[in-house]
Amino acid sequence: xxxxxKDPLDNKPPRHNKPRVLIDLDxxxxxxxxxxxxxxxxxxxxxxxxxxxxxxxxxxxxxxxEIYKFMGAGYIEEIMENAAPFSGAIEALNRWASEFxxxxxxxxPEASRSSTFTWIGKxxxxxxxVHISYYKSEIDGIALLDDFVDNLEDFAATxxxxxxxxxxxxxxxxxxxxxxxxxxxxxxxDVLYQQQTEQPKQxxxx
Length: 206
Ligand SMILES: [Mg+2]
Description:
Blueprint: E1 20-23, H1 32-43, H2 67-70, H3 76-82, H4 89-96, E2 101-106, H5 113-122, E3 129-132, E4 143-146, H6 149-156, E5 161-165, E6 177-178, H7 181-205
Parallel strand pairs: 1-2, 1-4, 2-3, 4-5, 5-6
The protein binds magnesium ion.
Magnesium ion (MG) is lined by residues 24, 26-28, 146-148.
């Protein structure tokens, strides 16, 4: 009898043991603020938006607290879906996906959840795992790249490597800081290399 159906599991790739790294979306991979400002300017072309340097968005948009309504259901989907990736971000993820298991971790309110999944698909983010969670430090991974200081502090408190993607709103973070996703992977690779070379020395002392 001819075999009509080939089990896809026959072709499964070999098991890998790549280090897991957690990558944030907004402020790291996706330029959410840029997209918000663009959408705002379409609605209010004469308004001047100040440079956003904290999470208190009401301080930068002339409509003040109303900005949060503007970010609600009905508006937010388009803002999220149309947001551009930061320059070089997707390229860097693709370049390093063979060395690291890329795990996307992003805190999203319900209104922006499906548009976030759409965005991940639209840009073909090389990931097998997406977590939508406000509790990033509960997720397994050797390092986190994030732009929000509270997330970095929580993650660092678990004894793991928390790396900040430099943004105007996270200048109070005193730990490791990078300016691109590419730089993050280079940094993590250096740390892993140092750990590997330090270990035999420690063993020889005992
Ligand atoms: Mg973020």
